[in-house]
Structures are given as structure tokens and as C-alpha cells.
Design a protein that fits this description.
alpha+beta, 2 domains, about 30% helix, about 20% strand
Length: about 240
């Protein structure tokens, strides 16, 4: 999921979906000061997508399936020094930390698919206490996700590295993994990791909410779509 520096609306963004809903419900030109504002619709779309992803993630994890590729976010994070009074000289030299936010939980561990620098990948450790041991046994960098932090213990080939690339499934797909991103006014314009099927369901449910439930979800062949048909009275 890449962020766009352009102020134009990306066709895969949440803003584009909100504009589509607004136009379907009210028709005509789409403006931010319409009867129902764009931001209100965006919040409604997020609410709908939360339901979709909660059930989708649970099904995939329960059946030991890989996460939907649309849910995997890859981003570069900056490492900072860790200053704890009980650290050894080796830990002071090799241990680093980055804030990455909350990730989806699968089998008791965060759903992180990879941490790497170039072609050098880090290996997962079970706990912060086992970081150093894991790194020395494998002769590679090791990592563990604890709370909002990605804890790193550098290996021999990553000692001077100040940034790493993290791939995984953020708990909230609309934050890119960092909770503070929720306040970025441009986040609505970025392409969002949402599959086509989920987009269609989000739009339909948002329209149903905005029209008080009177939105046709099934079409009778002998009638025009007059907004009175739904899943309960389909032919």
C-alpha cells in the first residue's frame, strides 16, 4: 500500500468509494457539503469494512490459511536505540526498536510475514529475552513484536542498519500499521488494501444504511429496480 503525494483522488482510495456511495444515493455532482458529507460516509465505510475483515481474518486464521494478500502492508520503519539499565554492552550495541503499532493476532503471535534489509531477513524470536540467543544461534538478526514495538537484535550483517522493511497484517487496515496515521488528512486519498468483493459489499451496506434499508440488493426480471427489494423478499 503506497502513499500518494498527489491531492488527486486515487480510484482505489476510501475517498473514491465514499464519492461513489454519495453519487449513488443522492445523484448529480458529488461535493463535500452534500446532505451527507464525504467524511461521514468514509466513517461508515470503515465501520462496514471492520465487520468484513473481522470475520474474514478469523476464518483464515482458524483454517490456518494465509491472510488475504490485500491485507499485507509493507513499510519501512526507522530503528532507535533502546536504553534500559539492565542491558549488557552487547545489547547496547546490537539492540534496537521501532514503533509499528498493533498487528493482527494469529495463534498467539503477531501476523508479521517478514522483517528484512535488502536480501537479508531477520528471524523471529519468541520473547525479548531470547532475542540475543536467537541472533547468535542463527548468525542473523532477530526480531519480536511486543505491544506497539518491533524489537530488533542485529546480526553480523545488519549491525550498521538504521531502517528495516516490515511486512504483515496491521490490526487496523486503515492505519498502515501506525495508529497516528488515522489523523493524517490525506489518508483518505491513498489506495487502500481492500479487495474488489469487499468494496462492493461496503458500498452496498453503506447505501442501505443511508437509505434507511430501502436499497435493492436483488433485481426481479418483471420489475424495475424501485428500491423495495432486498434479501428478505427476493423472488
Amino acid at each position: 500500500m503506497e502513499q500518494s503525494d498527489s491531492l488527486s483522488v486515487h480510484p482505489d482510495s476510501l475517498r473514491a468509494l465514499a464519492m461513489r456511495v454519495q453519487q449513488n444515493v443522492y445523484g448529480g455532482a458529488v461535493t463535500d457539503d452534500a446532505t451527507i458529507g464525504i467524511r461521514e460516509i468514509e466513517d461508515l465505510l470503515i465501520e462496514q469494512y471492520a465487520f468484513i475483515r473481522k470475520s474474514g481474518d478469523a476464518l483464515e486464521f482458524r483454517n490456518n490459511l494465509a491472510a488475504d494478500p490485500q491485507r499485507i502492508v509493507t513499510r519501512t520503519v526507522t530503528l532507535s536505540r533502546v536504553d534500559e539499565p539492565t542491558m549488557t554492552p552487547s545489547q547496547q550495541l546490537h539492540r534496537r526498536r521501532a514503533t509499528i503499532g498493533t498487528y493482527a493476532n494469529r495463534g498467539g503471535t503477531s501476523y508479521i510475514t517478514g522483517v528484512l534489509v535488502g536480501s537479508t531477513s531477520f528471524v523471529p524470536a519468541g520473547t525479548v529475552a531470547s532475542l540475543e540467543r536467537t541472533a547468535k544461534l542463527t548468525r542473523r538478526g532477530a526480531y519480536v513484536h511486543v505491544g506497539p514495538y518491533l524489537e530488533i537484535f542485529h546480526g553480523p550483517r545488519t549491525l550498521a542498519v538504521s531502517q528495516v522493511i516490515v511486512s504483515g497484517v496491521p490490526a487496523n487496515p486503515f492505519t498502515g500499521g501506525v495508529e497516528a496515521d488515522i489523523n493524517d488528512p490525506l489518508r483518505w486519498l491513498w489506495p487502500m488494501p481492500i479487495g474488489l468483493d469487499d468494496r462492493a459489499v461496503m458500498v452496498e451496506r453503506a447505501e442501505i444504511r443511508l437509505k434507511g434499508g430501502a436499497v435493492a440488493t436483488f433485481q426481479r426480471k418483471d420489475q424495475i429496480n424501485n428500491g423495495t427489494e432486498n434479501a428478505l423478499n427476493k423472488p
